[in-house]
Fold this sequence. Notes:
By secondary structure, the chain is mostly helical. It is 86% helix and 0% strand. Helix 5 (141-178) packs across helix 7 and helix 7 (196-222) runs antiparallel to helix 8 (227-260). The model has no long low-confidence stretch (mean pLDDT 86).
Amino acid sequence: MVGSAVNRAFLPAKSVFEQVGELVLLTGRTIASAVRPPYPYGEEFIGQFLFALQLCWFPLLVSTVAINFGAPGLQAANFLTLFGALDRLGGFFVLAAIREIGPFVTGVCVAGIAGTAITADLGARKIREELDALQVLGVDPIKNLVVPRFLALMLVTGLLDIFAIVAGLSGGIFTEILYHQSLGGFFATLFEQASVTDLWGSVIKCTLFGAIIAIVCCYKGMTASGGAAGVGRAVNEAVVISFLAFFAFNYVFTQTLLATNPELQTIR
Length: 268
């Protein structure tokens, strides 16, 4: 009885460790398949890239402008106005829009829109036993299905992050206009505080977000079971796990970036 109770208590943890291990193995197989010839996934890669870009750009635009205008825009402007330092808003947007909000909103939009579509697509194929049929025919599902989605989401999240940064900075510009301030101070502190490291760090971080989303969503889709209800559960689990994974990865990446580039912590 005691042994059974212990097994039931540790069963969720065991399932988590098993899934993490399988995700790591899938990541290794995906990277190996991506660099090893032949490369038959070009058309699928382009299709998945355009599909994700078409679905994500408008929700990302609306979300990024609204979040940056509301939180770091209006609220930070109210605080800075008390000290007569509204011109410092541009420097604050380096931290808000470039380092954090841009990659986060991009990751959330790509996971919630393109990631769910990938999970549902692969899950439906798994339920219809199409993936098994491909293996019987000698077609590798990793190279032909996972790799193009992996590369497409990495590329699209990197590009959308730049788009999100531009849209986020427009939220700061709208705030300055709302407070009848000159944009000269905003851009002066923005360019004084910003650096090339901020930009490439943001893009690389968001690109890796795309890799995490692709691996998690492909894994959940290819392991779905239980009919249509199972595909629905896989989609929900894929989104939640993707969020948790890139939130945790953001902590590690940011700590590493700040430790290797201490000048980023200096307020100029």
